[in-house]
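Model it.
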Amino acid sequence: MHGFYGRIPKINLTGQTYEIVPLNNEILFRYLGGKGLATYLLYSTNPQGVDPLSPDNCLIFATGPTTGSLIWSSSRYGVFTKSPRTGFYSESYSGGKVPEAVDAAGLKIEGPEHFMLTYNKRSLN
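Modeled.
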């Protein structure tokens, strides 16, 4: 499917590790777009009943399949998690140049509190 790389970085900030996890094309077709995929990932990876302030609560940053194209709103990305305020699904959106940078980035773990995306000149395809 064009617009997806078929894999995602799964980052453990506590353990200062990450792994590249392959995604099945069936998942990409079934949960189309950044919001659909992020929602699927949140519900499939968060432990049931996870405390929203626990390190086990996933924080998912997602770009959509049109990122970097000329299509309207392709410069948007979303952040998805379980809300500490409501205990339910939470999402927030932003845009600008960030989605394109995330889409073309390499990944470097800098410490237990944060990671850094660095531009990678190699193709991720």
